[in-house]
Specification:
Elements: E1 2-7, E2 10-16, H1 22-34, E3 42-46, E4 50-53, E5 83-86, E6 98-101, E7 116-122, H2 124-127, E8 136-142
Amino acid sequence: MKATIHTSKGDLQIEFFEKDAPGTVANFVKLAKSGYYNGLSFHRVISDFVVQGGCPDGTGAGGPGYSIPCELEGENQYHDLGVLSMAHRGRNTGGSQFFICLNRQNTQHLDRNHTCFGKVVEGLEIIGTIRQGDTINSIEVTE
C-alpha cells in the first residue's frame, strides 16, 4: 500500500511499513480515506529534526478522540531521513498526529519509542521546504 500526501509545497510519495506497523498504517489510512487530514497544517516544524502534522486544531494538542498502541518491534523501526512516525504524549497515546524525519542524526533517540509506519520515497527535497503553517491539502491512498 502507498499514499501521496499532497501538500502546499508539493507531493510526497509514501510507502507504508505494513509488516512492522499494521495497526498504525490501518489507522492512518482510515483517517486519510475519510478526509480527516484534508486542510490540516504542519503545526510543528523543527529545523534538522521533524515536520509534524495531523492535529485537527493546529496546536499539537488535538487528535481523533481515541488512542492507538505503539508498534515498536520489526525491522523498520529506525527514524531515518523521510520516515513517517506517530507523535504521542507517551507510550500508546498516538492517534492522528505524525511527523516526518528531516535527518537521522537528530532523530535516532526516537527509535523504538515512536512507531515508524512509512517512508517518503519520492519528494524528499520537498520535506525540507515545509514551514509551520503549510498545509496537507489531501492524502490519496493506493492499494
